[in-house]
Amino acid sequence: MIRIIKKRRVARSVCCGVLLGAPTKTRRDRPCLFFSTFLILLATIFFPIFIKPAAAQELPKMFTDLREAQKSRVQISPFAGLYVGDTVSTSYILGSQLSYNWSRHFATAVDFGFSPLEVDPQSAYGQTVTNKKMVHVNGAIKGVTPAAIKVGHGKVLEMDIYGFVGGGWLKINNADLANGFFGLGTLLYLKPPHFALQVEVRSYLYKLPITRGGFSVDAAVIVGPTFLLAPAVL
Asked: Which residues pair with 220 in a beta bridge?
């Protein structure tokens, strides 16, 4: 929740950020896709070096006693976003995610996504397409870190930053395929007590049933509300 924490209770704040990268659309530009993904992971590892942390004795108070964002066991997150394909063309994605928090730092999730299948009709794969629908159903595990950033005089924006990895089922052009996915995201706690904003960048990996060049790495940048249910102190 954006939560207001009185200035006298907060000695310092911890700033956190995520570098977003997106791939290009053509197979010739595949190195750019992997480079963008590499930058995301690299930023996650090294960005904390440049953050001025609270003193060691203040950290427990910062993230427990002073944390006003209510942690929930169950989170429902409908989302929409931009889908950038390696084999498919740029499109959009709609979906929803159901997450269960086992602890403050560990969660599992089930994720559903739909995207219209846009392809070059002159490409090797495009000539085989008869059903322009793509559906993802995945399971994932999440590693979560609570964080906060100072946004004004005596105000702190509380958030969770998380990484995830998983896999599942992809239906594309009437073919049933296995796929994997991974990514990074943040959950921004806003003022309403049972509401947050989710922002996430993710990559999908799968192998198309064609003779040559079937391996595809797609990316999506999504945003949407998160409804916090079953409150719990974790």
From this structure: 83, 202
Split into its structural domains, the chain has a count of 1
pLDDT digits (tens, 9 = 90+) for 12-60: 333 333 333 333 344 444 445 555 555 555 444 444 433 334 444 444 4
Sequence-distant contacts of 87-90: CB under 8 A, at least 24 apart: 87/27, 87/119, 87/123, 87/125, 87/208, 87/213, 87/214, 87/216, 87/218, 88/115, 88/117, 88/118, 88/119, 88/134, 88/216, 88/218, 89/25, 89/118, 89/119, 89/120, 90/25, 90/118
What does the alpha-carbon distance between residue 145 and residue 162 come to, in Å, rounded to a whole number? 6
Residue 217, classed as helix, strand or coil, is: strand
* CATH number for position 217: 2.40.160.20
Domain that holds residue 116: 2-231
CA dihedral angle for residue 96, residue 98, residue 101, residue 106, rounded to 10 degrees? -60
The model carries a pTM of 0.69
DSSP run (H or E) holding 32: helix 30-46
